[in-house]
Known about the structure:
The complex is a heterodimer of chains A (627) and B (272).
Chain A: H1 16-21, H2 24-45, H3 51-72, H4 76-83, H5 89-95, H6 112-140, H7 151-185, H8 194-216, H9 230-233, H10 237-265, H11 278-293, H12 295-309, H13 322-355, H14 363-377, H15 395-404, H16 406-420, H17 429-452, H18 454-460, H19 464-494, H20 500-526, H21 541-571, E1 602-603, E2 619-620
Antiparallel strand pairs in A: 1-2
Chain B: H1 19-22, H2 24-50, H3 57-88, H4 110-139, E1 148-155, E2 158-162, E3 169-170, E4 173-176, E5 181-187, E6 192-196, E7 203-205, E8 211-215, E9 221-227, E10 239-245, H5 247-256, H6 264-270
Parallel strand pairs in B: 1-5, 4-10
Antiparallel strand pairs in B: 1-2, 2-3, 5-8, 6-7, 6-9, 9-10
Helix pairs in contact in B: 2-3, 3-4
Amino acid sequence: MTVVDAPTGHRAPRGRTVRRRQGAVAGLVVGAVAAGAAWVGAHVLFEVGNWGTDRVTAVAMVAWIVGFNLGAGTWNPALGWLLGWSDGPGVEADEAGVGLGRSRYLRFCTDHKVVGLQYLALGLVLLAVGGVGAVLIRTQLLSPHSTFLGPTAYGDVVTLHGLCMVIGVLLLLIGPFATSVVPLMIGARSVALPRVAAMGPWIMASAVVVLMSTVVIGGADVGWTTYAPLADQASPAMTALALALVCLVVTVVLSGISTVATVVTQRALGMTARRMPVMAWGSVIAGALAVATMAGLLLVMTLVLTDRTMGTSFFVPPWGSGRLYELVFWTMGQPLLYVLLIPPAAALLEVAATFARRPVFRPGAVVVAFVAIAGLSLVTLGSHLATSGLAPAVTGASMVLTELIAVPVGVVVLCLLATLWRGSIWARLPLYFVYLFVWDMLLGGVSGALLGNTTADRAFHGGTVVTAHLHLMMVGSVLVGAAGGLVYWYPKLTGRLFDERTGRVGFWCIALGIQVTFLAQFWAGAQGMPRRVAWYEPLFRTANQVSTVGAYLLTLGWLVLLWAAVRSFRHGRPAPSDPWKATTLEWRTPTPVPLRNFPVEPVLEPTSAVARPGPSGATPAGAGGGR
Amino acid sequence: MPSDPTVTTGPSAPGGSGAGARHPWLVALTVGVVVGAVVAGLAVVLPPRVLPTPATGTATDVTRTAQFVGLLAAPAAGLVVGVAVASLVGRRRGDPDEPPPDAPNATGTGRTVLLGVVGAAVLVGALAAWGLAVGSSSASASPGRQPLVVRVTGHQWVWTFAYPGTPVVATSLVLPVGRPVTFEVTSADVTHGFHPVAFGTQVEAQPGVTTVLEVTPDRLGPFRVQCTQLCGLLHSAMVADGAVVSRNGFARWLVAQGAPAPSAERIAQVGR
């Protein structure tokens, strides 16, 4: 389907009045009514208590998810087809939000730039909640036997912090990066499957509400990995949480399919595989890896749901086992870490190229390295299972495979450094994040190499050495990379220039905060401090206090950076179409980006270099060159 | 026309000489060697000082492994930091709103990548070889002595330790020094992690499954047993006291816990 930017059709297509009223508000109303009705109905059907409460929760939550998306318009493409609603240019223009102004951001909208920002908004909400969680956790850990949070609240906060952060950062990468920017980079005038792409944020929005509802309906002190059988034992909030994660799987798979399909089919003429920007490659590889592995999460969450609502016992002995959960969960969990790591690394390679004023060094090697990382990530889950006693025969092989992933990661970092080496450095804010990324990857990589060693893993497993390592990867590398990319593409996404003076203050707080917070956690962990504890031995007091101070500084840094972004959005200077004098195609289109992305279909000249089409790279293909 | 991007125009280069700009290799090498040396020094010095005092051979292996990984990290850290710093020194300080002139394409070739792959592979190979060697040495049970079996059970939120052959079931873990111990670990409810910290190793306590952990404590003194798998409300409090005692001390402790009054043979048998 292609979106046509013609004025809306002459005759009102069937179902149009309904469609016009759909959106976030209608979604909230329909969802709330559906959930309420289902809750009452479920109380009649099921006896409350034991499985009954979980059944009521599940039915009400599913009704909310289905109802919200009905009201929001997520099901329209399928529903319209079932109901015989006419399809045509008018409908497509409506769905793309033609003439709706800002309100299209609150509607089911097939314009991929809108979809990307919808994801961004959801991602920021989750990161904010996760960030509050982080501050609460660190405040609790200021003293060994703090009573700031009770043990119940602490466990719930740990769960919510982890899930919100992982999902939030995932949405940042799916949204502004893979959905907004990548289609522009490859010269696409639309995404390949606009309706599929548009469904994602709405399904996720309903899931975010479900996730947040766990605060009200009891909380689940299970951690982001929600290990069963602990998950079987937790309050009905766990049922809601599992449903939210099922929605996450659906969203990630839809967006992954959309990204892959767009890059495969919608590239501009002349945008051959060898010329495709590294960022586009990174998004496709990460998207494909996500689609391939999300089934693991779907499976364990479905089985947790049946355990909780139907009395099965997949994860409870004697018939079932928690080992089954761990094994299947990490078939998703380990690749997920690389789904999260590849796109920011790719984004920062683009940033490095722009601010070193030269092409990315050996983009082919980078792409091969990404593929190798994705492939190896499928077989390195053993590092998470080293203490499970499962399959001791393959412990050695598993360790070697885990450590092998350092080779392609090293190649990516090498190419990033070689891009900067003797480059013509233009020290603008996005480039700062490249250097911070490299440093944090060094720390995270070395600690990863240590944890990849089975002997060391068995000493440090379940301790704050692991916490420090994973946060250096998730915050220091992934989130820093995503922030650098967002600052870089900010002028294109928002039409405003970023306030770099304020942003730099935020950057330095973040850079310093990361080192203090997580290096102190290595210290505590080396002394033997376990993860996810609300109280600890006085031995670990100093390290924890240092870490908490660092975390406050880190939080301050993110707030300042966010403040710079908000202020620039409201008062920033209007951005020219290409503020960085960059070479990739997304800067060759006007800002704000028109509905069909490029005024005329971009064509890359046959002789232009990889990722660097030259000043005439996006030449018009003649007057009639459009589709 | 791309000019030489490394010409210094301001007082930014260290010493104001502009040497960094004209000789980036020298900057990279100097910084790299210094950083590498510092990392190597820390790698040797820190682990024995920060890690818990080892009470088993495995824990000693952990300290050595941390040192070894740190030493391997030294050249990588030197390279990364050296190149990153060298790319920054001597950059031109022009109008921050105007991009500097384009840099020539990087001069490196596929050989640079190949060199990187080989370098990384050598480091990873050393890491893997070390890991396999240490792993097999800690896995091999100490020969000769019959191991003491202790059945460990995780409950929400307490550990119990049963000593087969005696009626003793305790909530603290007492072990004789120098004798191999086989922990048979399981859980009564959810997944726990059995981690005697100073032993430098751990194993999961999974309901319905018995996992095995073999160690030989070789140092007298108290140690801490903690749960390393989030197990619900009081996970933080799931800590047990442990002690490695002399063989006679162990026999006395068993009796104090309610084991039958020992005959001479029994002391010899249990405390051996």
